[in-house]
Design goal:
165 residues; mainly beta; five-stranded antiparallel sheet; four-stranded antiparallel sheet; 3 helices; 12 strands
């Protein structure tokens, strides 16, 4: 059974700098289909279509999702399931991430290839505004009938309405 992890992230709108990735960085290799999650130290959301994975030994991989993942940057958190194999757990381009919204689970979004970039290129994408996060295990979902009464009351409360001026 795959392990379940969540990354809680604080993202920022990224600058569109395609030329930042035009340089051939000799310290990095070709795009990877999968990453070993044992080596991933943290992740950062750049925008609704881009997530950075900070790997051991100073390597950074950018994952450009197959499509825009509406709400990813706004909610700043997602979950993913990793593939478990004979050697280690890994996250692959064939996997998905799921946005965690305040109201529960959001969209499932397909990952792309993991492209190696330099830390300088990652910093350019982020503009110095994102917060690093680390994977944590997600607690099991608690059925509504087992939640504390005050939590149920909060969830069942109607949304406030504002009268027009």
């Amino acid at each position: 059974m795959p392990a379940k992890y969540s990354a809680v992230l604080l993202g920022a709108a990224a600058l569109s700098l395609p030329t930042a990735f035009a340089q051939n960085d000799a310290n990095h290799s070709e795009p990877a289909r999968c990453l070993s999650m044992a080596s991933v130290r943290s992740t950062r959301i750049v925008d609704d279509g881009t997530v950075l994975f900070y790997h051991g030994r100073g390597r950074v991989y950018v994952n450009r999702l197959e499509r825009q993942c509406v709400g990813l940057a706004r909610e700043n958190k997602f979950t993913y399931r990793v593939q478990t194999g004979a050697r280690h757990s890994r996250l692959c381009a064939t996997d998905t991430i799921t946005v965690i919204e305040r109201t529960g689970r959001g969209l499932n979004c397909d990952l792309g290839m993991f492209e190696p970039i330099s830390r300088e290129q990652a910093d350019i994408l982020l503009g110095g505004h994102a917060v690093t996060s680390v994977p944590v295990e997600v607690p099991p979902e608690v059925p509504p009938e087992q939640r504390a009464p005050e939590a149920r009351a909060f969830e069942e409360a109607p949304a406030p309405t504002v009268a027009p001026p």
